[in-house]
Design goal:
Number of helices of chain B: 16
Strand order of the largest sheet of chain A: 1-2-8-3-7-6
Number of strands of chain B: 11
Shape of chain A: globular
Order of helices and strands of chain B: HEEEHHEEHHHHHEHEEHHEEHHHHHE
Radius of gyration of chain B: 23 Å
Number of strands of chain A: 13
Largest sheet of chain A: 6 strands, mixed
Oligomer: heterodimer
Distance between the termini of chain B: 38 Å
Helix content of chain B: 40-55%
Amino acid sequence: MIRLFAALTIALFVSLPARADVEITEVTSPGGITAWLVQEPSIPFMALELRFRGGASLDAPGKRGATNLMTGLLEEGAADLDARAFARELEALAASFDYDVGDDSLAVSARFLTENRDKAVELLRTSILEPTFEQEALDRVRAQVLTGLRADSTDPDEIARAAFDKMAYGDHPYGSNYRGTIESVEALTREDMLDAHAAVFAKDRLYVGAVGDITPEELGPLLDDLLGALPEEGAPQPGPAEILIQGGTTVVPFDTPQSVAIFGQPGIDQDHPDFFAARVLNQVLGAGGFESRLMTEVRQRRGLTYGVYSFLVPQDHAATIQGQVASSNETVAEAVSVIRDEWARAAADGVTEEELEAAKLYVTGAYPLRFNGNGPIARIMVGMQMLGLPIDYIATRNDKVEAVTMEDVQRVAAELLDPEGLHFVVVGQPEGLESTVAN
Amino acid sequence: MSRLRAALVGLVLTVSPLAVMAAEEAVTSFTLDNGMQVVVVEDHRAPVLQHMIWYKAGSADEPAGASGVAHFLEHLMFKATDTMAEGEFSSVVAANGGRDNAFTSYDYTAYFQRVAADRLELMMRMEADRMRNINFTDENVRTERGVILEERNQRTDSNPRALLSEQMNAAQYLNHRYGIPIIGWRHEMEELSMEDLRAYYDAHYHPNNAILVVSGDVTPEEVRALAEQYYGVIPAKPDLAERIRVEEPPQNAERRLVFRDARVAQEYVTRSYLAPERDPGDQEMAAALTLLAEVLGGGQTSYMTEKLQFEQQKAVFSGAFYRGTSLDDATFDVVIVPVPGLSLQEAEDAMDATLAQFLQDGVDSEQLERIKYQLRASQIYERDNVDGIARRYGAALSVGLTVEDVQAWPDILQAVTEEDIMEAARMVLNRNASVTGWLTRPLTEEVN
């Protein structure tokens, strides 16, 4: 009876997923800056997303954390405004500028009202092109970064992340925390800020998305005003990262009632023809909510955790598949064992027809739900540009998911998932787990 | 799964939400014959919607000795009903491309799905089904109890900040259940039974104790028709208990706590003061407190930041927080994270001197104008996020505010004067009704 109802539910209610109806225009400014634009005049503001490829991986040797600290200083004084004057000006415009840096890019996410757009753009320009990096601000923000780094040093998640990355990527920038170490950040100087700024802010690595109350004719001059004075070239990008991690277990002792584990192995690039097969596979394995195999086996059936996930991590210079779980010290060994078993089961048998269909329905149906607001759409468009996707990609993306077959998933599962090659980094006092010798 | 996201608000300091609604936002509300309230927030720009049910029942509505049962039930609501298999709710939502989740707070428990606009009927049918038809089994109760204990491990016991916050709440409320953690005390969680779950479910999960909030690409007429079909047929509970909770006695003594934990990397001092909440038809004091938090410690140009970070350079971070959307007395919180080398006593003294100086100096009128302009702008920005508007209505109605109160709130905020803010400050910064907490490392470091 219950099963019948389930079947009927699917049959009756699953129809074609909603389409994301997004009309993108490519705009090239008189000065030659290209942006993707979605006009949305119904609300009098716009979202502007700028992305500079390279991000914290452009840190110079011995200067780990420089790009991150520099990013934190962009809103701490620019042109003739000191930090407090800049903050007052930003508040008076009711605009918001967020500066964020990661392994592969530095992102500037801005939103501002139509009624004071010119002033907002000018303020944003000074923060990107004319930050002052005053010593007082540098020392103050450095103290905040150091506070975060000290907190990380006793945070089991961060300890696990640091250990995993070091083992996986070695001396590549991915192998260390982009926020630096306490020692490296303490040693950073104003000169290092200027160097980091010059390394990342350049036209040869710039991607722009704009969504909101603005026309193509208005956007072109805005881009030139905002970004026209950027230099043409920045620092060279780092090369590919070799993934060094081997199968095994590493225990990092830490006094806490619950162990945290990060696990992973080599993955698949986003431009690989099998990427969507891997995406669907991971949906079944561990990306889903309660439906995923890992969640079903570790949480629903055994109550060993609050959450367990696997995720594809396709970065510019390396691709991995990783996962994370937290479980009491007494039960984490069982959780690890169940995860390994699920890895092996999927590698050997792939997924079922029902799982494949459910995963495809989810992955296609969830796609249009991502386009919820001007800011998210601007970010999606910048992401598309960084991957080199065509401007009409949104309309065709779900077809690529639909095209994934059982054979594709079976093949990718066998290639990607290697239970012997999976490495677990466990932070805590796990009972019944010990570090293996390898790696 | 970020279950219990709302619970975090009670456990950690978060920036108090400033959002206000726009006059042009398309909000419709009505009540079904069985007493279920309905709010519709329209946005037809994309073919998606969010369907939410808010129960006017949270952890503060639990019986004594059964702490955590509200949140435990939230987990069990994803198990089987008479017509749905275990896990089917979420898998049907997922198979339709949607995302679903739930959260529990002191005053409410809410369930929501984000789906394509043409899936509203399916969501309502399933949500209405589990309002009355959950089947509890011994197996579910046992495994899911393990899950909530792991959740407590992860959110609270692994986090010294959360542990201090839990102790501070317990000290702040002498009588009220806001002093008991939403997730529950471990020893009581371990004993929660199927009977506890069923009793709570039967007491609170009824249409006349629920609010339906739908936001997105939908019309009020569509929502009304479907709501009558699926929720309207569920009978109201005739003897629904009135929500009268115990009151706090006069608080006459300052409380001080020191929480020591070897995992503490960054020491800080925080203080909570008992503070009035938003009440129906009476939101002026809460509005003044909301602006006080902004003026005093809301951002880069706030008074505390100016004094403690820029002028005296004694703080790495400082702030003030107030969240007035609450059924009973809320708290007003301040925090200082000292720069390296400054003791917690010195940090607390600096914070107190700053608060005292603020009471002398008063409000910077230019700063207040900037804050009010930002509040007006937020009404524009929020129209880009109708799900946020929906959450605001759901939370407000769940704590007994009315649609009119929610709609009046922006104007009440705009009408707050400098004198109102100072009066609120003099009222709320009362050490006798406060708890001061130090988060610090153990007295003696272990050798080796």
